[in-house]
Amino acid sequence: MGAFDTRDFASLLDEMLEAGRSDDFVSAARPSIPVDFLAAAGGQSAADPLAAAEYLFAAADAFAIEPEEPVLHELPSVEPFDIARELRLTGREKPDALDRIRREFAFANHPDRVAEDLRERAIVRMQIANRMIDDAKEAWQRDTARA
Description:
Layout: H1 9-20, H2 37-40, H3 49-62, H4 80-87, H5 95-109, H6 119-146
């Protein structure tokens, strides 16, 4: 075998096996199962196209995928009172706390993060929550300006 041999792997393997054989050499673990083990076991040959087709159709029936039923999501409330309770607004939050509350609410309720059938409702919920947080920020600024 040369350094840049272009023969295929099977011919190289055959050549190596032939070179390694000798009369006093007992071959180590050779496969004991014949290549056509179905025919050896008394069954149909693995090369039989009808047997292969029968096997494939049986396998296809065993792995049939049932159509999924659509998932019905519980509709979240768009009532301002429920959203305010979900935001846990007390009216005493500072602007940095309000920004954190907005991010947390958006993380859980943003229209891009909910199921397709809940997108319109999520848009309304985000609009209400953003308005409430903006109003709370304005109220805090008014209160600190007076003091």
